[in-house]
Amino acid sequence: MGKKLLLQNEHIPGINTFDVYRKNGGYASVEKALKTMTPDEVTEEVKKSGLRGRGGAGFPAGMKWSFLDRKSEKPRYLVCNADESEPGTFKDRYLMEKIPHLLIEGMITSSYALGANTSYIYVRGEYMYVIRILEKAIEEAYAAGFLGNNILGTNYSLNLYVQPGGGAYICGEETALLESLEGKRGNPRLKPPFPAIAGLYASPTVVNNVETIAAVVPIVNMTGDEYAKIGIGKSTGTKLISASGHINKPGVYEIELGLPVEEFIYSEEYCGGIWKGRKMKAVVAGGSSVPILPTELILKNIKGEARLMSYESLSDGGFVSGTMLGSGGFIVLDETACIVHHLHTFARFYHHESCGQCSPCREGTGWMEKVIHRIEHGHGHMSDIDLLVDVAKKIEGNTICPLGDAAAWPVASAIRHFREEFEYHVKYPEKIKNPKHFEIEPFVSEKNLVTA
Amino acid sequence: MAKVTIDGIEVEVPDGTSILNAARQIGGDVVPPAMCYYSSLKESGGKCRVCLVKVTQGSAKDPRPMPKLVASCRTNVMDGMVVQNITSPEVLEARKGVVEFLLLNHPLDCPICDQAGECDLQNLAYEHGAAKTRYEEDRRTFEKIDIGDKIKLHMTRCILCYRCTFVADQLTDNRVHGVLNRGDHSEISTHIEKAIDNDFSGNMIDVCPVGALTDKTFRFKSRVWFTKPMDAHRDCPKCSGKVVLWMKGEEVLRVSARKDQYNEVKEFICNECRYDHKDVKDWTVEGPRHIERSSVISQNHYEKIDLLKLKKEVERQLEFQKGKPLPEHNHSLNA
Ligand SMILES: Cc1cc2nc3c(=O)[nH]c(=O)nc-3n(C[C@H](O)[C@H](O)[C@H](O)COP(=O)(O)O)c2cc1C
Ligand code: SF4
Ligand code: SF4
Ligand code: FES
To answer: A185 at the B interface (CB within 8 A)?
Structure first.
């Protein structure tokens, strides 16, 4: 059994209530931090832990905290990003639903470290039932004296609010989130300035993912140095993975970073192998935005070494032969899956979710979707394939926020690794009329020989 | 002060100057084009991405290059910064891409558009665009709507530069219009087609780089290159009263604010000057307006009309649109 730091108590009945959570050691990090540590000492532990942001980019959390402008006269804010809208990602929901107090405890301890007296949890609107769970938990925490004025009799005070979003993927981008939280249209801001200097209401702000904030709890409890011993290299600690797709046991798993990808997919403890006795074709390892990899490249890197579930190992090989850990949305496709169809689903999503501020993303996402749709339905030309590559290239890196990149990468990687499938769609418009074409006759190209 | 080198030319500008404005100090070809930035509107810029440049050296202190192309209109210079604009193939390639994106859903109905001849998108496309589109799909279209009795919004032509929304925010006393929806369904709108009614609303016509917002009192009166622009002023209690009269014979067809060489208005005018004084007797005429930018208008007037040049320009336009069918409801000329 791998080590668990976040979900170890999920099986305990009533763990979603304050009393049960407290009896099982909950809120110890708040007591420890507020009574025995200075805010800077807490930040120092987070730095030592090597914890990296769990929202997708993997930026070191302690470093982000240390950028917070502490000289500013303005109030400081901690904002929790619970907008979780990346296709394939559902770990934050699971954590908030099962153990809401873990997030609230993390918010209190982290807010204390940052000197924030008002903090927000921004939850995507579709998670209405989760919002109710969080609000109930917050109420319990207020009643128990863990929120409000003079927490645990100290002179530290914190008010915590839940803010529902309107249901837009783009509001997960941290500056769009802040705009939305301020009551404006959720357009990403131009950076700099970064939120650490001018975030919410132009005040110093830290935005962190749900899982990042929850991880502060074990870090403070066990010390940063101990936390850093878990995991591998610069990928310290544990990570929640949302596993979905053609596997026997889809769900949310807490893994110790460094677990071999092969073990994660095939062991009974985790995904339990590919369903229906089929072979694996491809994996999207970190949410819809990251490059898709064929079986041979997800199990082993180009040098033939086993790939591990870690930031470094998954990105080994760059975008030519690697991918990213991203948000941990692990989507497995079996041999009957159609990559073109799959890509169309993603392209439609990004087209729908672009905020429309900058021209490459606004126009490019729609263009790519339409071209992929055409190919998928047998109306494509051979030249469309290179056209897609070129459009993706013209979006990538030229936009205000990373949504443009996120829309371009899946397209570029699908064509990089599965070009023959796109050609097949152009060449055999009759065969692909049946949407289950690859179920009838799995596509096996020489290059992408399905191993395993 | 900061010293910055753009395409090999050094210039010294005050700290806090944007790369774009530093390039404008140099002038000429090193000035990146700008479709959304507008110097007299706060917070404008950063959106269209046509002004992207490459920073090959961040500053004297930190000489590392910037990892991505940056929007020159919203990136400030640092002392010792080195920038490439037209000397970078990467920039030119990206810019070509941006122009293609901007034209993707644009109706290209220049022959029936009032902005033709003074359209920033037309100029941009001539300079940076490809002659043929790679876009085979249907273009996005919107119904034309009236925002008030003086302004026509032709959303199909809009490039979502957000300038007009900044006019609403910054020149008028309340926020009357903004952007609805998102992505390529975004549209400029007022709340439930409410009229935009305040003394300075007409300025959104002038800031619009394309023919999405046009002056209904001028619509289809004349091609702009057949009018003669004259600088004029009047004593106005509300604004500077400094305008351009667009004349045909003795008739004033349109009144607009004055634009500088980058097609930007520095002194906005009120609606009374714009709409209610279409009599040349109301104005002190200063003389013919000098039109600096590469527009068809400049090839006209003052002296005599160069018909040959004009014909060439029109032919270029037609060539540019070849094979691009106009969307259905652009065929109808009725306003
Ligand atoms: C389009 C887009 C959507 C994003 N959505 C989310 C999200 O739903 N949840 C999240 O935590 N981070 C999301 N991010 C990343 C955030 O911008 C930000 O990096 C993150 O919240 C920082 O938290 P972390 O450092 O703890 O990972 C998104 C980024 C982009 C560009
Ligand atoms: S990249 Fe897309 S989502 Fe991001 S600001 Fe630009 S248009 Fe909006
Ligand atoms: S209507 Fe004109 S000014 Fe307004 S956003 Fe569109 S193009 Fe820009
Ligand atoms: S002018 Fe700079 S991005 Fe539009």
So the answer is: yes
* Domains, in order of start, for chain B: 2-99 (3.10.20.740), 105-131+140-219 (3.30.70.20), 221-304 (no CATH), 306-335 (no CATH)
Total Cβ atoms within 10 A of residue B277: 19
Q: Is the CB of A124 under 6 A from ligand 1?
A: no
Whether the pLDDT of residue A31 is over 50: the answer is yes
Average pLDDT over residues A430-439: 87
* Angle (CA) A301 A307 A308, round 5°: 155
Neighbours of B177 (CB within 10 A): 21
Q: Measured over all CA atoms, what is the biggest interatomic distance in chain A, rounded to whole angstroms? A: 74
Per the CB < 8 A criterion, the answer to whether B21 and B12 are in contact is no
| Cα–Cα distance measured from residue A64 to residue A431, given in angstroms and rounded to the nearest whole number | 52
| Cβ count near A400 (within 10 Å) | 24
Residue ranges of alpha helices (H) inside chain B are: 19-26, 89-104, 120-128, 163-171, 203-207, 271-275, 307-321
pLDDT at B333: 40
Q: Give me the helices (H) in A223-358, please.
A: 224-229, 261-266, 295-299, 311-315, 318-321, 339-353
Q: B105 contacts in A (CB within 8 Å)?
A: 363, 366
Q: What does A353-392 look like in DSSP terms, one character per residue?
A: H----SHHHHHHHHHHHHHHHHHHTT---HHHHHHHHHHH
Lowest mean pLDDT among A66-80, A147-161, A311-325, B221-235: B221-235
Q: Kindly list the averaged pLDDT for each block of 10 residues, start to end, along chain B of length 335.
A: 96 97 95 97 96 97 96 97 96 96 92 90 87 88 89 94 91 80 90 73 94 91 88 95 94 95 94 95 93 55 53 62 48 40
Rounded to whole angstroms, how far apart are CA atoms A176 and B329?
Answer: 35
Q: Nearest-CA residue of chain B relative to A353?
A: B183
Phi and psi torsions of A322, nearest 5°: -120, -175
CB contact, 8 Å: B47 with chain A? yes
Provide the residue type at B205 as one letter.
Answer: I
Rounded Cα distance between B289 and B299, Å, is 13
Neighbours of A434 (CB within 10 A): 11
pTM (whole model) above 0.80: yes
State the Cα angle at A386 between A384 and A388, rounded to 5°: 70
Distance CA A396, CA A389 (A): 11
B242-248 sheet: strands from edge to edge: B251-257, B242-248, B228-233, B284-288
Looking at residue B295, its pLDDT comes to 55
Instruction: Give the minimum alpha-carbon distance from A132 to chain B in angstroms, rounded to a whole number.
Output: 28
